[in-house]
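Thread: tRNA-dihydrouridine(20/20a) synthase, structure

OP (GT): Posting the sequence first so everyone is looking at the same thing. Length is 320 residues per the record. Can we get the structure tokens written out before standup tomorrow? I want them in the notebook alongside the other entries.
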Amino acid sequence: MNPLSIAPMMRRTDRHYRYFLRLLTRHTLLYTEMRHTREVLGAPSMEDRALAFSPEENPLALQVGGDDPAQMAECARIAERGGYAEINLNIGCPSERVQSGNFGCCLMGQPEVVASCVRAMREVVDIPVTVKHRIGFDEQDRYEDMVRFVETVREAGCERFTVHARKAWLKGLSPKENRTIPPLRYEDVYRLKEEFPELFIEINGGIRTLDEAQEHLKYVDAVMIGRAAYETPYIFAEADALIYGDAREVPSRVEVVEQMLPYIEKHMSAGDQLSQIAGHMLSLFAFEPGARRWRRHLSENMHRAGAGPQVVLDALALVR
């Protein structure tokens, strides 16, 4: 299983972002945005925006949310037939909308339901069925509470658990606040791996560099990076060498932009807007000379009528 991944992020990890990241790292596991089972089951084909991806994006996991085992099983079949490398169940999102649908983090209080969903998916597909969850929620945040959840879901056949090392408050904090305010408890995740050595345990939460990732890999099997992957994407240009031992030449930022141009032309000709693609590239030059000029030019021009690849080239000229 993969030792490094980029977290699923709503309105961020769409197919255009994932293609962009693939120019930086060949091997890092990528995730879709979370899709509710109804969205997956309602897609008319793999070409639907909810499911479509480029073959270059693999290894790619489809993340789903829901609480109905039969629907989950059908989603798993769709994912496997469509070429996804993995299907992942979201048990970490704390938003009120998600709670009202009885999925996401609130299901940590219903481990038997999660186990039923995992079991139903495992019975119909050969691709890995994995779970992403928190260390706890509300008052159910003891280490023992997390162990009960993991043990129950493990019995259903789940072997990979991605653990966001923060609890979630389902009332009183927004999803954004739940990503920063509850304190990180990395030691609980390390302990989980120590006590369940047969499981593949991945850690998530507050990790911003590959150096930090390598430190965590001394204690767990894998590391998931979230916001830093979007705010400083170029850190993944070193991932293949540092994490996977792939000695391919690291592409420069300029080369990445140049390689994105044919992709932009292709998808704009299919009806997408420049902003839908270039918006994911705003932070490519973060902390580099000219980064502000690059970001400003794209931000001010990519939404304009008729904006196309030339806007990106003009922004690149400002960096150079």
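GT: Both are above now. Quick notes for whoever picks this up: Residues 201 and 221 are 5 Å apart (CA to CA). The chain has a mean pLDDT of 96.
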